[in-house]
Amino acid sequence: MKLTTMTQVTVDGVMQGNGAASDDRRNGFERGGWALGKGDDETRTFITQTYQRAEAFLFGRRTYELFAGSWGSIDQMRAHPIGVALNEAPKYVASTTLTVPRWEDTTVLRGDLAAAVGELKAKPGGELQVHGSGALIRWLLENDLVDEMTLIVIPVILGQGARLFPQTGPDLALDLVESRVDSKGVTIQVYRPAGRPRYATA
What we know:
The chain is of the alpha/beta class. Helices cover 26% and strands 25% of the residues. It has a single domain (2-193), classed as 3-Layer(aba) Sandwich (Dihydrofolate Reductase, subunit A), CATH 3.40.430. Strands 4-3-2-5-1-6-8-7 form an 8-stranded mixed beta sheet, with helices on both faces. β7 (174-181) and β8 (187-193) form a beta hairpin. The protein is globular and about 55 Å long.
């Protein structure tokens, strides 16, 4: 399977609290809900179709709990095409603390995470998708396990909140696979990691 990620981010790279304002208030974050209602019908269709083509889903602990309590539990959300995709596909969660997952068809990955993800990627099939799960995405990128990443950039600058890419971290060159902008100014950029960047010499 190809490991792909899809993340909503602000122009300044924040991914925290994109959903309901109360979802994630860690570290005094007060500017949640910045992605709700953004994007046009084409962007919403793109997001839905992305979920629908997943062979399986991989989550970090925090995003898993959030999704299990919404897409996995609320009837109206379960009936949505994204909910249907999530509930019908196998789900994997990377966690050292989760013991009894409450969402059906969930496997907790413990121990050597790189080996476990490598085994999943070696399986035949389509995409192993990661949504949200910022800490997990950063770890996957550091370990060269991401095949393709989609950034949905919302035209807003928050000035606070956890960012997808840390202030200091590994460097990574990207090849642009696809780019589009919708009628509301939301951009979708699909990248493939391409090794380390090249820097100008003195």
